Amino acid sequence: MPSSLVVEGYTDSRPFVGRQDYTNWNLSCDRADAVRKILENEGLGKDRVKEIRGYADNRLADPEHPESARNRRVSVLIMMK
Questions:
Q1: How many domains does the chain have?
Q2: pLDDT per residue rounded down to tens, the chain (81 residues)
Q3: Which ranges of the chain does DSSP label H, i.e. alpha helix?
């Protein structure tokens, strides 16, 4: 498919622990970027991913359970031309 991709990363609402200079924002961006790297290593053209987005815990998949593991995820959007 000639479509471009957008990769989005998310976290749960539990604050990241371990490093004070690393937050859920960093984690969500790194999560999306890790998927981009996997896709490229598996043969996706480097020009296909147009955006990496990190949402931290701002778009919970399970808002009634903000610390649920369901909220830790990555979405790959296929942008149709």
A1: 1
A2: 578 999 999 999 999 888 889 999 999 999 999 999 999 999 999 999 999 999 999 999 999 999 999 999 999 999 987
A3: 24-41
